[in-house]
Amino acid sequence: MASDLRVLLVTYTTLCLFSSICAVFGQQDGVRNDPGAGQIPAAAGWQQTKRDVAPVAGGQGQGPLGGIAAGVGNGAQPQYQQQQKLRINPGQGLGAGQRAFQKPAPGQFDPNQKFDQGNQRPNVGLPGQGPGAGPGGMGGQGQWAPKPVGQQPQGQWQGGQQPQGKPKLGPNRPMRISESPACHDDVANLCGKNALRNNFSILECLQNAGENTRAGKKDGGELSDVCNQFLWSYKYNLTRDVRFDSAAFEVCKPDLKKLPECAAIEKGQGLLLPCLYEVAENITTVQCRQYINRMKAITFSDYRLIKDFYTQCQSDVDKLGCGIVYKKGEETALPHKQGATINCLEKKIEELGETCKKQILRVAELTAEDYHTDRALFFACRDDRERFCEAETAGQGAIYNCLLKHKFKEDMSENCRNKLTTRQKVASVDYKANYRLIRKCKEDMKKTKCAKLRDSQGREFRLSKLLICLEEAKHNDVKLSGDCVAELEETRKSLMEDFMVNPEVITQCKKEMANQCSGLQRGGKTLHCLMKLTQGNPKDPKKLSDNCETALMQLVKTADAGANYRIDKALHKACKPVRDKICKEVEAGDAKVLSCLMEHIYDPEMTKECETELLLLQYFVSRDFKLDPLLYKNCKRDVQDLCFTEDFENSNLPEGVVFACLHRHLHPDDREMTLQPGCQAQVHRLLRQRAVSVHLNPQIEANCRSDIGQYCADKTGKGEELSCLQEHHKELSDDCKSKIGGFTEEEAEDIKMNRKLMAACAPMIKQFCKDFLSKKVDEGAALQCLIDHKNDDEMNEKCQAGIEHFQLIQLQDYRFNFKFKESCRKDVIAFCKTSKDKSSIVNCLSSKVRDDTLKDNPQNISEECRKQLKAELLQRSEDIKLDPELFQGCEDDVKKLCSNLKAGKARILECLRDHRKELGEKCHLKLFNRVKEQAQNVKTDFAFMHSCQRMIKQFCPGTAPDSLFKCLKAHKNEPSFDPNCKAVLTKRSIQKKEDFRLNPRMQKACRRDMPKFCNDILDKSKTKEYQEKSMEGEMLLCLKTKFVVKQLSPDCENYVKDTIQEASLDIRMDPILYRVCKDTARKLCGEQMESPGQGQVEECLKSKLHEGKVHDIKCRMQVIRLLQEGRADIHVDTLLYKACALDIKHFCVGIPQGEGRQMSCILEALEDTTIKLHPDCRRMLAERKETWSYAVKESPPGSLSDLAAMVNASEARGYFLTVLLVIIGVLFFGGLCCGRATKRIRAELKNK
């Protein structure tokens, strides 16, 4: 680079007036030494301080310099060692430089004068000026067009005469600047008397004069155009002297011995100092370092002093308007000086040509160590440096770093802030312009090979590439030094603070910043404004251009903001109070802080500000798995092995594709490999955290943009868009439906992914289901636990609503229920292929189970699936909304009959069952089918299970589902039996008696008897009419008549006997008796009807029948039937058996039960006067005999079968059979005799 960047430097050798100044080494009186800033006379108001003395290698201090370096050191500090003085023999001429300061004859041109770059012809200049120089303004193409000598402006001499009162030069005497006619007045006005004998102090003073004025300094003053031009020519011509390099060789001799590449440079070519700049970090001697820093301040004060820079950047200077500093009214603009042109080009670096950009970046590298060498920044930030960085020592980038830390303080001047931004902007293009970063990470860069990375054109990578390289090395467990890590963090913070330091963001997001994010520069506000545009609006989701989003993505990647929440200042400010409360145990700089904040995003402690900033950053982190250090560290190997992206670190993969691959392998097919445990945990973590917003799921967002706009435009809250898409799953486009389906399946597997439900149910989970959360993935167990406790008294409404919402979502696809999907996948494929949603699949599977049960066939549905099916049916019976088919069929009836009831706890379903006779045909049929399914397995009957759960545990633990009813009925009269359970038990028993189709036990016990004796009723039940209404107990009545005549099979007889026995205690258990006698019973037995379950209603009706008060013929016949059933078996007459149980045991021992045998025995004991029965038994038997006798009189047989049954049941059946046989015999013989006597046969027939 040294050959391309030739710097024309002014050295102190030629500035000194040899015999009088250089002969004595030490500090000039009244002069302040400031390394890098030059000497400033005391008259200018400067105070000498120690803080600007930069340390050098080995910790040596700085001493005063003599000879060519005179005025550079700081001899005023007593603790520094005195260095050897260097003398230059006086009397030596200045060569070209000397001739430049001598007055030429008017109209003549000195052939020894040097031409400025860009000049096409020599012009006669002022004394001390280079050719082509004049007081005029800037000409085209960088040429100077001075006025003729005869037209010099005021303040210059004319006609070869020097102004009166000015110092005169001797014939061979070197000229001091103070004695030059062009600058004598300026020196006197601006620099004071103490500096008059020190050319270097005067040069520094005059260079700073204009800047003091623009900075508002009291000692400020404008430098005349004549003096300004003189100084330019003065510095320019001095660089042509061979002694310029000789001075550098002398001062830096010890270092040059170690730097052969610089020692070999030919003198007088202007290449030595550029070479020393290149290796400045290897220079150890104090004198050389100070000399180089002092030369930089002069070198970069005017871009024209930099050879090749002038030629290669002139077109850019003209094009971008960087050749003008300021205008005084309408006066001609002056050329830039004091680094202003360089600063202008730096600000517009993205618009520069490649050759000029290369020069600008190199200048930035050379001025990186000491802020004094960046002249524009130095002058802009002098006051701010005193205000904020007074204790900082100059050099090694310390002042830069200090000023950057205070960049957004309220009292930081805007001019300084802007210059710092420009500097940062250049450093983002060339990382070598960041001196502290390079210095502190030098060894780490070598170790990680990040220092050798170059782009396709052989140039060093940008700052972003270096940062990414070092951060990836860190994530790969390469140990970086503490200083390097700290500096990386500071650099990344600065990138996220101000969009102005990011050229790509400025270029690509120009439109967005102008229209939507203007005026929000400080503290990362503009960047976060741009980041918010990525969220968009459901109606107009694309508010940010692709190029701008890509630039922001690259910025987040460069800053590695996902690794440390402190990098993003806006995020840090918003979330620090939250972090201190809920994540205080996590180290502040750890990547786990962001993860912790995401895990607690629904916590009450989470603020809206923190939530907003957190989600903005996560939007970008979610699109590149390398931005999440925890995921990257644990899944790097899996990505290489399973996702076929070995070079994923350098590949431009689509957003979210790597994570999508990892997600897919979370549940691989049998032929695929699965993720490592650590990677599995991280994928599950991110699935949970990103479930909070559709924007954190790139695959969903990309495929569902139009669906969000169509269905979820008004859903803007946290997690609302995802919930909305789940609710409209059936209506979504195919691609979106697939992505949302996969997301919902994951939610079903891991409840922690359902962030809204977790937030709503956190206390309930701790109370009921905390054991399930100990697993990394609960596999649907925690959700099932919440559903099981959904209707507990302790369950809060918020959690209950969340559970119901997800249950409704699960109805859309059986795969949305993890346990059901895993248990029934094969059964669904085998038996329910045509079923689409979960509801239809549940109906299909339950029908198959019911049919196999009723037909005593082996179950085709697997045991695991049947278990899950029961849970699904139980959930469905709890809330009619969870049964879409029933809800749609009964919606009008619900509004009409049950509108005052709140959904849940099976209230609506029970209401419909209570009003079943009032339902429409469609609703009745749907409800009947549901009730029939519940009858097959009482564990799917929510109202029953919810009311009787405690009683089942107490009285029937371990009882099979088909025996639960019988077990609970056996204990329902226990004192401790729950009345709610008893009420539900009674209701279900009544409904089973009314319709045999709802009574699986009857169907199973009497499956042969019903077709044999009651086939007409079976046929009737299959008609369309009776598919929609109840059989009203007809089948049970038919079987009871056969029970009386002892025609039933043993199983059916036992069932009917149990039914009659149950009905003897509760009239409601006899559907026909209750239906026809309800009004009579209320009229005659009103008191007993208040508690119908004690058997007193039946006793009352029997006594009223005997008294002749039952006038309703239908009711009378049913009471008589009741008496006949009790006479057939004493055990079915519960009250009578209870009264006579001891007597039967004592007097009828050995007599088997059934067929009325024990009843006959006890009746015989009643007639035997020697047997003393229990008074209650004797009384009730006597009453029964009288009632039976009355019943026989009042109940003529309705058919021959009834007559036969009555005769068979009568005690005198032998007598009736004898009479019947006699009558038949008489008829037979009478007919035989009478028939032959009366019938005549013709003779011809007899003779045949």
UniProtKB/TrEMBL annotation:
Its main location: membrane. It comes from the Eukaryota. This is Golgi apparatus protein 1. Cys-rich GLG repeats lie at residues 222-284, 351-411, 479-538, 543-605, 731-794, 860-920, 1047-1109, 1110-1170. Residues 110-122 have a biased composition (Polar residues). It holds the Pfam family Cys_rich_FGFR. Residues 90-177 are annotated as: Disordered. Residues 146-171 have a biased composition (Low complexity). It is a single-pass type I membrane protein. Keywords: Coiled coil, Glycoprotein, Membrane, Repeat, Signal, Transmembrane, Transmembrane helix. GO terms for molecular function: fibroblast growth factor binding. It is found in: Membrane. Residues 342-369 form a coiled coil. One of its GO terms (cellular component) is Golgi membrane. Residues 1-23 form the signal peptide.
